[in-house]
Amino acid sequence: MAENCFDFDEKRDMAWCPGCGDFSIRLSLLAALKELGIERDRLVMVSGIGQAAKMPQYINASYFNGLHGRALPVATAIKAVAPDLTVVAEGGDGDMYGEGGNHFLHAARRNPHIALFVHDNMVYGLTKGQAAPTSRVGMLTPVQVSGVIADPLNPVALAIAMNVGFVARAFSGDIEGTTRIMKRAILHKGFALVDIFQPCVSFNKLNTLQWFKANTYALEPDYKANDRAAAFARALEETPFPLGVLYESDERRPFEELLPVYREDRRPLRERSRDMKALRAAIQEKK
Amino acid sequence: MNPLNKELSIVLSGEAGQGIQSIESMLTAFAKNAAYHVFATKEYMSRVRGGCNSTEIRISRERVTARVGRIDILIPLTPESIPHLRERISAETAVIGEKAVVGYDRMIDLPFAAIALEVGGVVYSNTVAVGAICALLKIDRAGCEAGVREFFGGKSAEIQDFNVEAFRRGYERGSALVPEVAIDIQTDPAVGDEIMLTGAEAVSLGAVAGGCDYVCAYPMSPGTTVLTAMAEYSKRFDIIVEQVEDEIGVANMAIGAWYAGARALVTTSGGGFALMSEAVSLSGAIETPLVVHIAQRPGPATGLPTRTEQGDLNLAIHAGHGDFLKVVLAPGDLEEGFSLTRAAFDIADRYQSPVFILTDQFYVDSYYTTPPFDVPDAPPERHTVRTSADYRRYALGSADGLSPRGLPGMGEGIVCVDSDEHDEGGYITEDTAMRKAMVAKRLAKIAAVRKDILPPRLYGDPRYRVLILGWGSVKRPVMEAMAAIGLPYIAYLHFPWVYPLPDGVAEYMAAASTCIAVEGNAGGQFADLVEFETGKRIDHRILKNDGFQFTVEELVERISALA
């Protein structure tokens, strides 16, 4: 048996490039799940399309690997229908901030208890090196041949603006630090974003491991994450980018807790059945 | 004017927001309580205020379920109502209303507003009109007055009193018109046990019967009618109702809900459904059910947002890339709306596939009296399993391509689904043999569903010479037209299950000397499907694409010309 119930007994052929930050992020996730003591049959991983979105393939748990950009509506529904399960959504910057940008905004509004881990390598990997929503201005790619001209999306500032109750930035090179942040994100009762900086060894020659090291700093140990305006100011900082939990607040109640179906009955929908007498009465009321 | 003794067609016309709705609601309720069969349908412009809309109400001694062109009584509330309905106003039409407002020479003057002012305010005009019409129908006054109180039950006692008084005054003025507008329609005591509801409500009750416990949608006319009805039932039946940011999110959310153990319904119209194509394909690939109600309206693009058409059949059949099972059902009347929607959830769950219910604006907005629906005692059966530790979601080996569907959190196993081609456990694979096996698994479901296909229903003498083929909401207009034509050799073959096309259609067609397709679109999408699947020609296509449902008279004329 694998030492971690979310790991596999046998070695798997992983589709990631040698040296990819995805491997480190996987180790952080496995450690976080184990340390939190989550049971294997109580977790659902949800993802879209891309190299990062393949993460559920390599975690021994239930998963829904759906369409590009569409992980969050799926994850929201799973949490709404089965609030007893732990739901983790994971994907890349293109998947979550590009194709799925609208869903990201509205997941932030709804605030379901879902931890969202976004691998942010500032480039498109699986489609071979085009610009991502987080690519820096000026980056040359096979498509943006004169350099990227659109400003990068700032996911942590956007999330704080949307009043997401847990907003953090991690770095794949720091496995223990990422694990600690992931654990807090999974425990946060609401929507939690962890934007994870990660080098792309195949397609991003600009934002390399060294570049990330040189252009990030850890939030001070006495940083207070409960001040939204201060957190927003920090979130706007670039080169160097702050790493750590930027904002944390439990003032918002999660989506699934606010759904009227759970007001008097905590059972997930799969355990309920229809009241046919009430249906017959509803039809008779049309007389 | 000869006394109308079989049925009456009343049309109310005016601006949006002028109160046609309240006249219609009271009148249909009072007529039904008086044991008349009632049918009502409305046509309206895509705007919130102003414009010119109309509602047709048929009051009859027999069941009526279709639209007629003829107007027996017209209540115009604006001058624009007259040109709006000109083609339908004949010498026999009694036009009743405020001459000073409408300015139509040939009308019977009944100053609703002036009478309402005597009572206490112009606001009571609509109730005056209801009183006048009830008097013409000779509906018992005391019963109606109780009905008026009930209708305004949410208002103060004073407002109720004013409305009752307005009704009384209207009733008196209407009674004075009786020699001019002679109506003598018998009632049918059986109506007392019947229900009266819209197509949208029938579909919604069918969804409740099918165990629907999750509804998601992005508002779009006319699909919103079902969203609103389900929201109304949500508290009573523990249904999650979520308005989603866009239709792409809607369809993905619904599939996620099914995956986790809900029975989710999506309701939309053609333009919204177009955005869901990729998710339809996802449902096919990961073999996770999906039920979508598509209330059709005329396209292309935004088209005519509030009108009707049957133009989305091809879209539904061809939705989603790749090869997998899709089922299209299309109710033709209220009972079918209930029973087919209920069945849609069972089929989707059993075959782990997308199922579409195609209605249209005419269908969802129209309502009439009908016998109550049959409800089984047992709640809907769930076609899911408790998993064991070695569970594999896409286990191969069954002849029908079906592998037991487990739910995450229900059993010791894990449930892995992937939009990529996958192996039995759900993991991504590019293994050629596995690819072939998974394609075969999905195709086997297309073959397997045939044993559950609802056959088409034949109405009329089986020794027919002329066979009319139709689907969806043309059912009742065709049947009423057939009855009016009265030729014994015409029969109607109705398809509640449209796709995959049922077996035996070629045999039905071979028995006829003339086959006619009737459908509400420009090219004949269903006729194309029938010709493609059967290899037989449909001789004539009676089509309509002006945004309105066929009237009975129109079908009588067009069918008679061909039969």
Structure in words:
The complex is a heterodimer of chains A (about 290) and B (about 575). In chain A, about 30% of the residues lie in helices and about 15% in strands. Chain A is α/β, with parallel strands linked by helices and about 290 residues long. Chain A has an 8-stranded mixed β-sheet with strand order 2-1-3-4-6-5-8-7, with helices on both faces. In chain A, helix 6 links the parallel strand 5 and strand 6. Chain A is globular and about 70 Å long. The model of chain A has no long low-confidence stretch (mean pLDDT about 95). Chain B is α/β, with parallel strands linked by helices and about 575 residues long.
Give the gist of this structure.
The complex is a heterodimer of chains A (287) and B (563). With 287 residues, chain A is α/β, with parallel strands linked by helices.
Any chance you could write out the topology, listing elements then pairs?
The complex is a heterodimer of chains A (287) and B (563).
Chain A: H1 21-36, E1 43-47, E2 62-65, H2 71-81, E3 86-92, H3 93-99, H4 101-110, E4 114-120, H5 155-161, E5 166-171, H6 175-187, E6 192-197, H7 209-214, E7 216-218, H8 228-235, E8 241-248, H9 255-258, H10 276-284
Parallel strand pairs in A: 1-2, 1-3, 3-4, 4-6, 5-6, 7-8
Antiparallel strand pairs in A: 5-8
Helix pairs in contact in A: 1-6, 3-4, 5-8
Chain B: E1 7-16, H1 20-33, E2 37-43, E3 50-60, E4 73-76, H2 81-85, E5 94-97, H3 99-102, E6 107-109, H4 112-119, H5 125-136, H6 141-151, H7 157-176, E7 195-198, H8 199-209, E8 214-217, H9 224-234, E9 240-243, H10 247-259, E10 264-268, H11 270-274, H12 277-286, E11 290-296, H13 313-318, E12 327-329, H14 334-351, E13 354-360, H15 361-365, E14 367-370, E15 385-387, E16 406-411, E17 416-418, H16 432-448, E18 457-459, E19 466-471, H17 475-485, E20 490-495, E21 497-499, H18 505-510, E22 514-519, H19 525-534, E23 540-543, H20 552-562
Parallel strand pairs in B: 1-4, 4-5, 5-6, 8-9, 8-10, 10-11, 11-13, 12-13, 15-16, 19-20, 19-22, 22-23
Antiparallel strand pairs in B: 1-3, 2-3, 2-14, 7-14, 12-21, 18-20
